[in-house]
């Protein structure tokens, strides 16, 4: 038994137990999801370090209040909401954030995004609405549907990969789950993580949070949050950076009325073939440099994304951006 003690991990194998842990913790919130598989063709690690709890949930950190469900406004639509409805309050809330390209809901009746605006703000029907889970405006909350393999890479640690089928463009892939932290707590944790090889901290830092509807900066630097997927998280914590990404991160509101606390949701930004690694840009897109990005680390980190237009680094500290005038 490889010299390992006679524990369930040794008897059944770390990999199977880790896969079972994932299945057990997600069975109720992604009913249509194919099981997550773990593969390592690189070295002897049976699975990623299992010292984190696999979950699709948001855990509210110290000083961060959970959603105020009493403040939620629900729609009164009978049956599934009609995207052409003139009275659905969820359509009105979505309209606040929509460009002219999107009428009604951002997902079409196949659950695919109707717009490539980046980053998008998505407002789904919530627990105060009368419509059922089958409503066209409840895609994210139905959970992952795409097959995922968590696989060891040669130069970037573990990564998440598309499995079996082709992914359509603009499809919901997953929610960046983890602990929702105050800015102060995230700063403290960031100092510790910067000393290690990896960080799982992401700033909740979108353009619509900092600007009003006319594009005027209204940010007072207070009340910002970060998501930390170090202790709690799902397969999205293994999404590596690419300079030619196939995923985009958008902001979504379901049972949350506080604009500072959207969910971070991952969508495909192009067609993705079976076996492709799923990646997004930690730097954000080129034309939204002042919006969200992975919490800046103390210095540059060499990028091994391998794409033709790789910039050579993943993210840089504020000083480097200022030097570039970015
Ligand atoms: C959010 S984690 C991604 C999952 C990580 N690979 C793991 O094994 O847990 C971010 C870390 O992954 C590594 N990473 C992600 N993208 C990379 C890239 N393009 N080149 C090199 N390392 C990368 C870096 O160590 C980075 O701090």
Automatic annotation (TrEMBL):
It comes from the Eukaryota. Residues 73-143 form the Pre-SET domain. Residues 146-283 form the SET domain. GO terms for molecular function: histone methyltransferase activity; zinc ion binding. Pfam families: Pre-SET, SET. Keywords: Chromosome, Metal-binding, Methyltransferase, S-adenosyl-L-methionine, Transferase, Zinc. One of its GO terms (biological process) is methylation. PANTHER family: HISTONE-LYSINE N-METHYLTRANSFERASE SET-23, HISTONE-LYSINE N-METHYLTRANSFERASE SUV39H. This is SET domain-containing protein. The lineage of its organism: Eukaryota, Fungi, Dikarya, Basidiomycota, Agaricomycotina.
